[in-house]
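Protocol step 4 of 6: structure prediction from sequence.
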Amino acid sequence: MPALSPEILAQCPDPAEYLLCSSHQGWEPDEAFGHSRHAPTHRFRQYVCKPCNSKAAKARRHLARDYDFQRKYGIDQKQRDAMVAEQDGKCYTCGKPEAESRHGQLCVDHCHDTGTVRRMLCNVCNLAMGMLNDDPATLLRMADMIAEFKSEVVTR
């Protein structure tokens, strides 16, 4: 980090206990900075405070997620969010709210043969579709079997 001007140093409450965040340019207590993983013995502090570092990491995750949606399905985060809103924030097949889905997000269901995005599903429904190899005949036979045995009363 370059040497600080006397004006900036004058703003510091206690130079021995505070560091300047290079992101928001404010003085923060020493504990507000993480340890640098790249420094020998991890005894040096990072130049960005933890809250700023957290915001930057969240932005990077959002960009990575958008890139993944575009690469895998040909849609971006806004299109995915629009699909979820179209389904009232629920799984298309079982109606489970998005918040109750694994990782709090619905999965993008797509055809593995054509790549066409179909609907937004919860993790369980998406996995079930995949396990059935997207075969409607198998799904219908399973539905018939469940209905047949559901009507029977089990007595032991």
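Step 5 (inspection) to follow. The beta strands are 18-20, 27-29, 33-35, 45-49, 107-110, 117-121.
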